[in-house]
Each structure stands twice: as C-alpha cells, then as structure tokens.
Amino acid sequence: MIKLMQGDCLERIEEIPDHSIDMLLTDPPYSSGGLFSGQRKASTSTKYCDNKYSGSAACPDFTGDNRNQLSFLYWETIWISKVMEKLKNGAIACIFTDWRQISATITALQCGELIFRGIVVWDKGSSRNIPYRFRNDCEYIVWGTKGNRSIKVQDELHVYPGCYHIKGMNTRKKHHQTEKPTELLEKLIQISPEDGTVLDCFMGSESTGVACLNTNRNFIGIELGKNYFEIAEQRIQEAKQRKISE
Ligand SMILES: C[S@@+](CC[C@H](N)C(=O)[O-])C[C@H]1O[C@@H](n2cnc3c(N)ncnc32)[C@H](O)[C@@H]1O
C-alpha cells in the first residue's frame, strides 16, 4: 500500500488511524543554512544549491525552511507529538537533521514523549570546502522509540550499523534540492518489520516511498508543496513500472 497526501502534515496526520505506524522515517526542512536570521530566511536554492550550474538548482524551492531556533523547536515538538499518537507501541522514529539542528531535534523528540535512543551518522563523503574548518560532510538521524521495543528472539540476531558511508546524491540525478539517497533509506528501513507501515510526513520527492516499495513496506507520505507532490506521484509510478519489469 502506498498512500500519498498533499497538504500541511499538521492537518493531514489527523487522518491516519491511531496506533497504525511501525516507523516514522522523515526528513523535515532543517531551517538551517546560516547562522543569522537573514541568512536562514534566504530561498532554499540560495542555501542548499552550490551554484546555479548545480543540477539541484533545477529543482523547485520548498517552504517551511525559515524558522528561527525557538520556533523550529516548538514546531518540531508539535508535529512529533501528533505523529506519536499514530505510532504503534514500540515503533521506531528516525528524523534527519544537520549539525546546526541536532540539539533542537533531540530535544523535540523528547518533548514529543518519544524515548531518545541515539544518533545514526550518515557520512555523505563530500561537503563544501571552507578553509581552516572541519568539514561538515555528515548528516544525522536522531532516533527514538515509542515506549520500549519488544524483542523477538529469532535464530538470526539483527544489529544495525550506527554509521553509514553512502555518497550524497549526484546533483544531476536529483528530484529534490535536498534529496536523500534511496540506498541509505532502504538500509534504515531494515529496522522496521517487513510488511509494516512507514510514515514520511515531509516526503519531498518521495525517496522514502521508493525505498519502501523496494523493501516491501507500506508507505504513507505527506508533502506540502504541490510541485513536489506531483514529482512524487510521477516518481512512484516510474518506480512501480521498473519493479514490474525487473
Ligand atoms: C528536506 S525536504 C524532504 C526531501 C526528501 N527527503 C527527498 O528525498 O525528496 C522537506 C520537504 O517537506 C516539505 N514540507 C515543508 N513543510 C511541510 C509541512 N508543514 N507539511 C508537509 N510537508 C512539508 C517541503 O516542501 C519539502 O519538500
């Protein structure tokens, strides 16, 4: 089952039945890209696309990326609390973030009453070069659970890495300015039950939905931008066709 919804996730989440989601895997707008409010209010192409020749500059801008630090924390707490009601007991929540917003994301996850379990590192293998600084070539997945996770004792022991070395997207192949590689998402999804349901309430171009299709999970995706919603609809149709012809 793949279900796509267009609109503000604060409203559309209400339509999802309570206690029905096995995993939240989502990549919200980081409201990052600058230390000062003026820089953070710039368009997403100014903040996240290296230059006008980068392939990702051809992707549309997106909204919801201009919050100041406190309103970002408040807003994350609200949507995480709403998602919380939809998660099954023991479900996993994985939320992408960057170095600037990692502390706000950890706080919001706990304000939303999830149990904070740790941080997974995504080593993208590249970043802008800024002289005399450490490179910011990693992003992070803050993760938690709704209550305790019951352990099923199986023949095979399942343990998942805390660090993934997967190259960031080739900008020429991007469907979204801040697209995440499906290879990474497929690996993260492995922690959720097969045939379970994954929610991405900031689905963008639907990379999580494609990863769910490829790994036999059900998917519910919500996207505010009409342009990205249309890209997502087309992308999933193409992914389905590819799967059939394999
Ligand atoms: C960081 S991007 C996600 C990119 C996605 N991971 C991909 O690979 O394509 C965040 C997305 O959330 C959407 N968004 C922003 N505010 C939203 C809201 N209130 N409800 C739903 N979607 C929202 C933006 O339009 C944007 O496409």
The ordered string of helix (H) and strand (E) elements is EHEHHHEHEEEHEHEH
- Label the overall shape: globular
Topology, number of strands: 8
The CATH topology: Rossmann fold
How much β-strand is present in the residues?
Answer: 15-25%
What molecules are bound to this protein?
A: S-adenosylmethionine
Q: How many separate domains make up the residues? A: 1
Largest sheet: 8 strands, mixed
Task: State the secondary-structure class.
Answer: alpha/beta
Radius of gyration: 17 Å
Q: State the helical fraction.
A: 25-40%
The CATH homologous superfamily is named Vaccinia Virus protein VP39
Describe the structure.
By secondary structure, this protein is α/β, with parallel strands linked by helices. It contains eight helices and eight strands. The chain has helices at residues 9-12, 37-40, 44-48, 69-86, 102-111, 182-189, 207-214, 226-245, and strands at 2-6, 21-26, 87-97, 115-123, 138-145, 163-165, 197-200, 218-223. The chain has an eight-stranded mixed beta sheet, sandwiched between helices. The longest helix has 20 residues, at 226-245. It starts with a strand and ends with a helix. Bound molecules: S-adenosylmethionine (SAM). The site of S-adenosylmethionine (SAM) has 22 residues, from helix 1 and strand 8.
